[in-house]
Write a structure and sequence with these properties.
The protein is an alpha/beta fold. The protein is built from 17 helices and 13 strands. 41% of the residues lie in helices and 15% in strands. A hairpin with a 2-residue loop joins strand 8 (292-296) and strand 9 (299-300).
Length: 424
């Protein structure tokens, strides 16, 4: 495989999943609750906040030339209107091409207390935060993703509805429902804890149903997220017009079997096409894909019998990435960056195979003139997979949870080989 000069080959992380001790965020607050839906708290996570130089050095030594990471809003603005100069400076030094995400699921507790991601005021708060980052770090950044998986709310709403139905029918179907959304969720535990969680949420956030970013979104809240993206985009451009600004979306390869065409079409409209008016002015789109979803005459189908499943319950299907890139390109004619694509597995040989087949698909797209500018694998290291805790191993680097020792896997060097000499 051969990639053009300047093609970005990198890995991705999210601040809360790797940094540790993000004590001012909504996720941190939820993790500490007695009846939390999290299997364990994030705690020190991978201590990336203190060890980031070592981690970036491992990336560079393996040949990777890009790092997609997030800035933790709750660190930068721990209290409303109070920005921490020391914290913003922490994110300055990188060493590889930075692809910065401003909001990767976690928000400051104070924002959630003010209504969170269903409140009109959030648009202005997010605009102010984006402007602050652009002013302080903009001279060193070429790419900013405003919001990670900005379409996640509607996906979660649909999955929650399906899970409630499935849970009533058979408790053992829980993992199948969780495996259809590209984020670590514990719907079973959430339902069991619902009555307790309401009381604990009220004590922390002032409401029994806080609107965190990964709450099930209303249609109004769905549009609000993208209006916040647009506001941040314009703020960044007014300060640093040279920065490329986009958003990332969680996208499945939606495949229709005979009779399932209408279901697949409706799902793609909800997952992608209805966002086009909000993103057509973006400089690029961050494509995030892990697997496929199939539809038949009765609607969404479970994974086919006998297929290989990842630790997350996803079907092992790296070809999905090429399909999604091609589908997105039909309507979005701007540049594309694969900002997440990966596999949770304890068998690194399967990760290598996943990368090989995924990158083959990217090369095929480039050969047809589709403007893909880079590929960032999820994830740089085994980390905190949200409500699933540390049991899901997505990383190119293993992390000893006791000593924090980093142990690069063969997949790290394999991925880096594509950036080192452009061919393998």
């Amino acid at each position: 495989m051969t990639f053009p000069k300047g093609f970005l080959i990198g890995a991705s992380t999210a601040a809360h999943q790797v940094e540790g001790n993000n004590i001012h965020s909504d996720y941190w607050a939820q993790e500490q609750m007695p009846h939390s839906s999290f299997t364990e708290p994030s705690g020190l996570a991978c201590d990336h906040y203190n060890r980031y130089e070592e981690d970036i050095r491992l990336m560079a030594q393996a040949g990777l030339n890009a790092y997609r990471f997030s800035i933790e809003w709750a660190r930068i603005e721990p209290e409303e209107g109070q920005f921490d100069e020391q914290e913003i400076e922490h994110y300055r030094d990188n060493g590889v091409e930075p692809i910065v995400t401003l909001m990767h699921f976690t928000s400051p507790v104070w924002l959630i207390r003010k209504g969170g991601w269903e409140a009109e005021s959030t648009i202005g708060y997010f605009r102010r935060y984006a402007a602050y980052v652009a002013e302080k770090l903009g001279g060193e950044i070429k790419y900013i993703c405003t919001i990670n998986e900005a379409n996640m709310g509607l996906q979660l709403a649909a999955i929650s509805r399906r899970f409630e139905l499935m849970a009533r029918q058979a408790r053992e179907n829980a993992q199948k429902a969780e495996g259809t959304v590209q984020v670590g969720m514990n719907f079973q535990k959430m339902m069991e804890n619902m009555k307790y969680a309401a009381q604990e949420n009220a004590a922390v956030f002032g409401t029994p149903q806080p609107q965190v970013f990964v709450s099930s979104r209303t249609p109004e809240g769905d549009a609000l997220v993208f209006r916040a993206h647009q506001a941040a985009r314009e703020a960044i451009r007014s300060i640093r017009p040279e920065i490329q600004v986009g958003v990332t979306l969680s996208l499945h390869d939606l495949q229709a079997l005979p009779g399932g065409e209408s279901f697949a079409g409706k799902a793609w409209e909800e997952e992608f096409r209805h966002y086009l008016p909000f993103i057509q002015g973006d400089d690029f789109l961050g494509v995030q894909n892990y697997t496929r979803t199939q539809y038949g005459p009765e609607g969404q189908l479970p994974c086919p019998e006998g297929v290989e499943l990842t630790q997350m319950g996803y079907e092992f299907y790296p070809e999905a990435l090429e399909h999604v890139i091609r589908k997105v390109h039909e309507d979005f004619r701007g540049n594309l960056i694969v900002t997440e694509n990966g596999i949770a597995t304890a068998d690194d040989t399967r990760r290598v195979e996943f990368i090989r087949r995924a990158l083959q698909g990217v090369e095929n797209c480039l050969g047809d003139g589709i403007p893909v500018k880079g590929y960032c694998h999820w994830s740089l290291m085994d980390n905190f997979e949200w409500q699933k805790g540390f049991s899901m191993t997505f990383g190119l680097i293993a992390v000893d949870r006791t000593t924090q020792e980093r142990k690069p896997k063969p997949s790290l060097k394999y991925l880096g080989s594509f950036a080192q000499d452009g061919a393998t």
